[in-house]
Amino acid sequence: IKKIGVMTSGGDAPGMNAAIRSVVRTCAYYNIECVGIYRGFEGIMEGDFRPMDARSVKGIVNKGGTVLKSARSKEFRTPEGRKIAHDQLKNAQVDALVVIGGDGTFNGGLVFNKEFDFPVIGIPCTIDNDIFGTTHTIGFDTALNTVVDCIDKIRDTASSHNRLFFVEVMGRDVGHIALNAGVGAGAEEILIPEENLGLDRLLESLHRSKRSGKSSSIVVVAEGDKIGKNVFELKDYVEANMDEYDVRVSVLGHMQRGGSPSCFDRVLASRMGVKAVETLLEGKTNYMVGLLNEKIELTHLREAIKGQSKIDRELLRVSEIMTT
Ligand code: F6P
């Protein structure tokens, strides 16, 4: 392998830049050429490549977002699109890819490898933490800190006005942000897609909180929660069924994806970038680098995107005890 392409794809996450930097610097360390690919798979098809050396990634370890930009590509999902992408990589003499992103990114990498036998290694980077084969994806820790910080602030105003707040956090299909940030911020109730609490139990729990002397409450809701109602409908429902609370809603939205990465995410990204390049140099392909038992380990990309739930049952139990 003489030239590695690095790209970011899908929803951005804090720490993406630290991962790019690590890949670029590891290539420089091993005297391999590195090209940055702009806007993910879209950029491969357009041949939007720029050479990157160790100095070109200076001053980005602490920056949110991604200097390589990100996109979700429809055309790359077609065989024609992937053929164009392969031709572009061949023309530029790129002979391996490091793809930084989530399950959509890894899926694209796997299909591409299957069709063209092109070496691909994945680095998990999404605030959702919905990837198997790693306890933490890059960006998750920063997003948790952002959410906890916001909920602390919401708590101030909630308690001043004796209000109940529904706080919606990201997590299209998973409740990792909701569960962890909910426990960290001392939420009274946490609603996640992996568990269906049900509306009756929610009401019962809110009544219980009130009876136990709480004057304000925070309910953290993952956007993909399966209770069947969005936060605004939940507000209406609770207001229609309980008059003890004055209810408000706060949707945290994309602020969860921004900001300077935490030290944990920067270190994780640096470790993963080194391992990704070294794995390619060992002649391996179709692996994702992940953090398991504090060590950087490889998991096949197919396993990483299998879609199993890795919700922490022990933390669920802790949250139940904490919300009594
Ligand atoms: O990156 C994953 C995610 O953060 C989801 O939790 C959320 O539903 C989605 O991105 C939002 O994506 P978009 O930027 O396309 O609105």
TrEMBL record:
Catalytic activity: beta-D-fructose 6-phosphate + ATP = beta-D-fructose 1,6-bisphosphate + ADP + H(+)
Stored InterPro entries: ATP_PFK, ATP_PFK_prok-type, PFKA_ATP_prok, Phosphofructokinase_CS, Phosphofructokinase_dom, PKF_sf
Protein location: Cytoplasm
UniProt keyword annotation of Transit peptide present: no
Catalytic residues identified in the record: D128
Chain positions recorded as Mg(2+) binding sites: D103
Needed co-factor(s): Mg(2+)
Residue ranges constituting the Phosphofructokinase domain according to the UniProt record: 3-279
Keyword Transmembrane helix: no
GO CC field: 6-phosphofructokinase complex
Inhibition and activation profile: Allosterically activated by ADP and other diphosphonucleosides, and allosterically inhibited by phosphoenolpyruvate.
BP term (GO), one: canonical glycolysis
Positions that bind ADP: R21, S22, V23, V24, R25, R155, G186, A187, E188, K214, S215, S216
Subunit structure, interactors included: Homotetramer.
Similarity field: Belongs to the phosphofructokinase type A (PFKA) family. ATP-dependent PFK group I subfamily. Prokaryotic clade 'B1' sub-subfamily.
NCBIfam families, alphabetized: PFKA_ATP (TIGR02482), PRK03202.1 (NF002872)
Name of the protein this chain belongs to: ATP-dependent 6-phosphofructokinase
